[in-house]
Design a protein that fits this description.
five-stranded parallel sheet; alpha/beta; single chain; Rossmann fold; 5 strands; 7 helices; globular
Length: about 190
Amino acid sequence: MGEADRNGMNDPTLDPPCQEGEDPFAQEGRPQGGTGISLVPEPDTETEVDAPFEDIDVDAPRVGIVMGSKSDMEVMEKAARELQERGVMHEVRVMSAHREPDVVAEYAKNAHMRGLRVIIAGAGISAALPGAVAAHTDLPVIGVPLSSRLSAAGGLDAILSIVQMPPGVPVACVGLDNARNAAILAAQILGA
């Protein structure tokens, strides 16, 4: 018996040695001459893992409602009321894109993992919040331009800040102070 036979090198049931440049794990667990049957399970893709859990009804909020200031609450609570009437779980948070940029970024980055599927962001004047949220998530973001006593041209500044997003960072925009429409759009997105 030769050296190769004693080491199992000529055993047809074992994987052949890798040639230079080959992936050493490419044939792992596959009998030589097999029909592509593997004894090593293929890793699940994210969609295969997530798919069975998509339709499970959980108590996690599906829509996040954020605003830059507590003074925006009167307008933005209309979105919360609309979602509540439709039976859509939601959460309401106050966070400023200018005063708390790290808080906004963390919220947006973790939103999908926490169960959110849509984010409604209300902001006035420079209206940076919807764009700041959209920059850190792949979830749909709906911007609500808000008017205030400091607004230019009755809220035109907020409208333009939301609709003029750069390519690759989309933000949907509803009418001035129209948080209810944002909630209706969020519900439509969830139902799609």
